[in-house]
């Protein structure tokens, strides 16, 4: 966003991809293994698949569940769903059958597309994973004409478990996906730029990696692995020309600790999903002072990102931690007190987002939709917003700082404790690689103590009593954890974030 003005135009996702194909049909769009696919091949194959979908009964406004592994074939199928006027919901075939069944039960007898042979529960139609070039070559003369889509039409559904573990579908319109990409949008996207596609397909940052490039003329490399390890990152930069990547904070910290030279050759780096570690950011910037590294913040309900901040050396020494910055193009952010009144600068409040990124709501959950997506007065105008449930503060310069989930504030022995503050204090200790603060409850559900679960930098030694002593100089006595548990690695969810629920369930 440096030096740019204006806001990217809002378009439907497939219209934007088709524009790129019309402008430069032979430019690279996708890479998977030895398969290199240009824009003409991708969009032609997608139109063939859209014709098959409509022949199976898919109609505009439908939600089409896709039980297909990540890859070029899935991407063409997703694009075909959008061209048919429907929206897609990508489910991982490796998920437990109970999770898949729970999601399909929320939909109205849909066409469910999967792979032939050993179909998971609920698949009604199957497609062979043919190369996209073969699908495009068999297109014939009667290609399907893509259905125009409105900006508010449903494009995709992302699923998040939330605090209950029950799959919750977030309904994303076309405008939410295209709003950040193009002239005036985020750096690192467009012709000549290449991003690895690593994120799980049911997660909103999959759309960031994929549609950010394909709606602007860039390219994506499909990575088979679930996470981008340092050796793989090196190979992608050297062999495929990857220059723009997204990493969850935990994975970024891992690369900084184990092989920081793996970042050599990148052009733009986005990091987020969890609170940044000042120590890791400082180490990165010492080695790569000119490589733009952006802190990205945003829940799936305000698709992909809400705010970004280009991190600088001074941020690592900031007493309130590394900020998440300023809103992405077209987005407005305000902070609200518990009573619903605006929080002034310097005071914490709930982060509320407005603009084209706001989701349509939750799938078949009107109650939660009304609670999280109310209409509020913003700057004298009635606007539909997202109440994120995240706590933040705007500083004197209007820069947003993130303090964690509102529901991660606990009460212990009469004292309110922000678990995110505990994690920030521990992360500043050089020997700590990763950490998470979790509240452990007794049989009656009352918080019994706070546990700090952590890993150490290779070769470091730090006894729990010494860690406790150091934290007493950084935290109020009541906020110092009661338990310290060192692990070789923290459990993670599919999207790379620390699995807090798994840590909460640990005995101790």
UniProtKB/TrEMBL annotation:
Top-rank taxon, per record: Bacteria
Membrane-spanning parts: none
Domain AMP-binding enzyme C-terminal span(s) in chain numbering: 422-497
Annotated source species: Actinacidiphila polyblastidii
Annotated signal peptide: none
Lineage of origin: Bacteria, Bacillati, Actinomycetota, Actinomycetes, Kitasatosporales
PROSITE patterns in the cross-refs: AMP_BINDING (PS00455)
Record protein name field: Amino acid adenylation domain-containing protein
Domain AMP-dependent synthetase/ligase: 20-363
Record Gene3D superfamilies: 3.30.300.30, N-terminal domain of ligase-like
């Amino acid at each position: 966003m440096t030096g740019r003005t204006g806001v990217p135009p809002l378009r439907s996702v497939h219209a934007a991809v088709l524009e790129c194909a019309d402008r430069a049909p032979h430019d690279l769009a996708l890479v998977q293994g030895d398969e290199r696919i240009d824009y003409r091949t991708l969009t032609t194959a997608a139109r063939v698949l859209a014709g098959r979908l409509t022949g199976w009964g898919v109609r505009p406004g439908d939600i089409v569940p896709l039980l297909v592994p990540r890859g070029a074939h899935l991407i063409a199928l997703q694009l075909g769903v959008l061209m048919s006027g429907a929206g897609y919901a990508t489910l991982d075939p490796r998920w437990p059958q109970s999770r898949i069944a729970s999601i399909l039960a929320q939909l109205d007898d849909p066409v469910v597309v999967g792979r032939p042979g050993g179909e998971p529960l609920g698949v009604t139609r199957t497609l062979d994973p043919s190369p996209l070039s073969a699908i495009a070559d068999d297109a014939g003369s009667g290609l399907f004409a893509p259905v125009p889509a409105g900006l508010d039409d449903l494009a995709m559904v992302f699923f998040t478990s939330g605090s209950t573990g029950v799959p919750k579908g977030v309904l994303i319109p076309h405008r939410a996906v295209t709003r950040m990409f193009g002239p005036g949008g985020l750096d690192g996207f467009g012709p000549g730029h290449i991003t690895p596609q690593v994120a799980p397909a049911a997660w909103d940052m999959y759309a960031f990696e994929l549609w950010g490039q394909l709606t602007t003329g860039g390219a994506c490399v499909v990575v088979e692995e679930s996470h981008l390890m340092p050796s793989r990152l090196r190979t992608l930069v050297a062999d495929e020309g990857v220059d723009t990547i997204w990493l969850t904070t935990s994975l970024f910290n891992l690369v900084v600790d184990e092989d920081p030279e793996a970042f050599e050759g990148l052009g733009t780096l986005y990091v987020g999903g969890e609170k940044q570690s000042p120590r890791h950011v400082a180490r990165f910037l010492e080695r790569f002072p000119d490589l733009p590294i952006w802190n990205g913040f945003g829940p799936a309900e305000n698709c992909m990102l809400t705010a970004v901040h280009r991190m600088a050396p001074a941020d690592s020494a900031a007493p309130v931690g590394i900020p998440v910055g300023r809103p992405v193009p077209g987005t407005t952010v305000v902070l609200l007190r518990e009573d619903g009144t605006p929080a002034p600068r310097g005071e914490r409040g709930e982060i509320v987002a407005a603009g084209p990124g706001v989701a349509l709501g939750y799938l078949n959950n009107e109650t939660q939709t009304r609670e999280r997506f109310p209409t509020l007065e913003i700057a004298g105008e009635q606007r539909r917003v997202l109440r994120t449930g995240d706590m933040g503060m705007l500083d004197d310069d209007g820069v947003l700082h993130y303090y964690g989930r509102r529901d991660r504030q606990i009460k212990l022995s009469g004292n309110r404790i922000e678990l995110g503050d505990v994690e920030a204090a521990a992360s500043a200790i050089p020997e700590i690689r990763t950490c998470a603060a979790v509240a452990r409850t007794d049989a009656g559900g009352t918080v019994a103590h706070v546990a700090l679960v952590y890993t150490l930098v290779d070769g470091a030694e730090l006894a729990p009593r010494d860690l406790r002593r150091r934290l007493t100089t950084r935290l109020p006595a009541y906020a110092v954890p009661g338990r310290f548990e060192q692990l070789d690695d923290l459990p993670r969810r599919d999207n790379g974030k620390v699995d807090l629920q798994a840590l909460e369930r640990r005995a101790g």
